[in-house]
Amino acid sequence: MTDVDTGGGQPRRRGQGELEAQVLATLCRAPGPATAAWVQERLDGRVAYTTVMTILTRLQAKGAVERRREGRSFRWTPTSDEAGLAALRMRRVLDGESDREAVLASFLTGLTPGDERLLRDLLAQAADEPEA
What we know:
GO molecular function, one term: DNA binding
CATH superfamily of the largest domain: Winged helix-like DNA-binding domain superfamily/Winged helix DNA-binding domain
Largest sheet: 2 strands, antiparallel
CATH topology of the largest domain: Arc Repressor Mutant, subunit A
Protein name: BlaI/MecI/CopY family transcriptional regulator
Keywords: DNA-binding, Transcription, Transcription regulation
Strand content: 5-15%
Shape: elongated
Pfam family, one: Penicillinase_R
Distance between the termini: 41 Å
Mean pLDDT: 86
GO biological process, one term: negative regulation of DNA-templated transcription
Number of strands: 4
């Protein structure tokens, strides 16, 4: 993890996935395919170019971005937004567990009533959609 200056002189550690989310959000704001240098500039130089490249490569491995060679560099395009990236992480965690039912049951019992209602509504909508 990388330290972040909080303005009080005390750097704090970035949360897991925080930098990925920042890089992806920045890339999503691009008017089209963007270079790693473009992303780094929009992060106000707070992140090294090599770190941006590493994050973009990790996002590509997760299916959240695509890259296309252009000359000697790459142009990156998001295939997912921040919500999609979070969903990918959640699926990866779920896929890594042997008892999916127990994991999902535990997840559901931890939801707030509002989130539970939202999840029920989303499941109902998904059930009503015709299969492609």
